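It would be a great kindness if you could assist me with a short task in structural biology. A protein sequence and the structure tokens that stand for its backbone fold form the material at issue. I should value your view on which stretches of the chain appear to form regular backbone elements. The record follows directly beneath this note.
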Amino acid sequence: MGHLLDTASVAELLWDGLLAPSTRSALDVVAGGPGRGRGLFAWLCGVHDCGKATPVHQRLWSEGAEAVRRSGLTWVESAAVAGAKTKRRWRHDWAGGLLARELLTAAGWSPEQVDWVWPLVAGHHGAFPSLRDVQEPKTAKGQLRGRGLWHQVQHAVLDLYTRELGFETLCELQPVLVPSKALQLQLSGLVVMADWIASDERFFPGMDDLRTVGLSASRHRAAAAWTALGLQRGWGTLGVSGPEAFRDRFGCTPRPSQAMVVDAAHSMGGAGLMVIEAPMGEGKTEAALAAAEVLAARFGADGVFVGMPTQATTDPMFTRTRRWLEAIDPDLASRVVLLHGKRAFNREWKVLLENAGACTDEAFAGVDEFGMDDDPYGVEEEGCGVQERLAPAEWFLGAKRGLLAPFVVGTVDQLLYAATRTRHVMLRMAGLAGKVVVLDEVHACDVYMSQFLGEGLRWLGQAGVPVIVLSATLAPAQRQTLFEAYLAGAASQEEFKVHLPAPQGYPSVTAAWLPVSEGVQFHTEVAESWREDLPVVVRVLPERVPAARSTRDERQRLQAEADAAVGDLLADELAGGGTALVIRNSVARAQSLYEELRGRFDDAEVRLLHARFTVARRADLTEESLRLLGPRTPRLRGGRLILVATQLAEQSFDVDADLLVTDLAPVDLLLQRIGRLHRHEGTWRPGRLRTPKAFVTGFQPSEYGEPAFVFASEMIYGRHLLLRTAAALPGAGKGWSVPADVPGLVHSVYGTDVSLLPAAWHAAGEAAALEQSDRNRTRAEVAREFLLTRAGEHELRTLAGLHYGGSTAGGDEDSLRAAVRDGDESVEVVLVVRDEDGAVFRTLAGRALSVNGYVAPDVLDEVLGSMVRLPAKLTQPALALSPLPGWHGHPWLRRTRALVLDASRRGRVGEFPVSYDEEFGLRQVQ
């Protein structure tokens, strides 16, 4: 009883101090009117553990079990043991679901109300069973659920608990409406959150004196816990901003396209989906944040989640979001959480944590969201548990942190995870609901990822979460799919086909919402770009491509030839100074070219950036690149700078180059890369580079047929889109007008018109299209196995059985990322160096660990900063790597694989030799 009241008391504080106005309003409607939702919410959170009033739970502690038996509540232990062996998962959570179903039915609740409530009880440990699952195993013969006097006690517990919360009877509490399944999932996450807070023995110690059990005492305990946790809401009730707000937030007058977006947010008749399509550098981010503020004020959202395509793009967005919030209210900037696996190496994030004080981290244990540990509540008995850096649950890290924080900037994976069938997925929905969700660069989601994006949009649509999607290069079919997914959720239908009005210009905004009693409403608008079209010279730099059966020597010779051609081009184009961005489609190609350029240019003139540097080194290189090529750095006349990068520099990477050399990629990504050219006004450029130039390489044109593509590009992007993009490249002496040509180019390449391809390519184009179609269908089918909702079940009205059937994504972060990213699962390792005599391990910087690798606290950041992700081809041999002996008891390193290098920085992953240095990163040694 004490824990039920403690949890209900925590729930009251969640209602008063954390829940968004939209959530409170929705629960008021479910409960029967204004002011009724709070009591229902508190009751639902507390009732979760009613199943502990059963033998299945009371028998677990022998001393307590004897006391229960002496009171007259008995059971046949042999039958209980037999039942437990038959269905090991049948514990107090499932027992509670069964009890809730029976007791609420007996109290006169209608079947449709009972049907959605009992899964919240049965699923509070992270997975929703079916009605069949929660039936007591027959072999238990009633000895797990309890017979005889147990039934009276179970009734009494529920009645007493209900009266303690101020309700005379259970009938008085019965909801009047069945909430949407999305609201049920959000509620479930909040139940779990309240349970975990109320399970923290620092604030809720056990009570031996039954006279101390009561709502007043529980509220006192909960208030003390709430104060210690320091959880804060977002902006609360936000006033609708006026025309002056944009200048106040961003220090400038809105451009026409930005004003268009804000106007659309004011015009929407309900929470819905808004798609902003505008060129690179147009200011989509500022427009989206301004629109989010309007939508939050109008529809009761209490925060924002900003989802970015990669960790590299998330870091600068974290800074921009904090600046925006600081302009609204200086106190809000400190409530923004950076949410990705390498945030510990973001300097701004580290400063936030350091300013909060070490005691903040020490106050919180990491919730075992993925079921990896034996601590289901995230409350360790000794010490502070797994702290912030590698804790799998991101929400329970302390004040102003985690997905349930009001303002979160993270990778789009956080939304995709919310669409997977994983334990405690309800926490992710509880974190996303009640916010405005902003998703940038959604065109980066391929067919596989789009299955999870569509599923996530379904749930957000049903939850009434306003969503803003940004893209510079969105294909029409992808736009259609986004709207149909969101609106299907809003309508609670399996499918929802709409005739979506196509934008009649660029930049554009398209919004749709579904009023309760009307059909779909649309708002479409176009605006002029803030600057004139930029004529970009686009030229092909042919590259001889090795044949399929070429020898290693032949491949290396042709790669060296290709690198030399790029080197000659850059030496010529940059003779009078200037900056160049070179984007290669693989790390190996970037490293190879960098080695060539390093021999031609001064060391200070060439930089390399890719994903196989250690996380600390990569963060430094990214920051340096953004500084050197950013808008606030003056260019030295006659100076030269070349950045060789991979796709990290493709999008949401605010650099400005005079010249681009890029491997061929699908046209939307190619245009993203071109968007790094002449990005900022007022930048000095040498005379010959005052017109932006883009050189496209990585393929070999043919006079007699289709081109040949480098192997890495074809493996990543597929032959179909590369062929159609190659066909869309302008002829000699011509170029593209950006942004005017962007929509047409994307539409033509992602369309089905065979006339785009030259006649000599038709056979190859048809074969490539069929191959891509088969591949897309296979990838979509594989993804659907991991989706939270199976096909045909979107119209079911409750959460019962949600987690059972189909495949379940792996519990750890790497497995989840692989599940939603459709790649060969890659492995991260920490690089350490072993002395020649083998006496001691060292960090890459040379600081000593110990003979067995023990890490002193002052060296920990350096060790974690030496983490690097291996190529996918090394995944299988890397699984044989293990932590150093001294790491096994360490909360952050115990599951971290170590790759031991010798004094020359060389090592082996299985049979594959590798090397690492600060200039090239990790390389496979031939």
Observations:
- The CA atoms of residues 756 and 787 lie 36 Å apart.
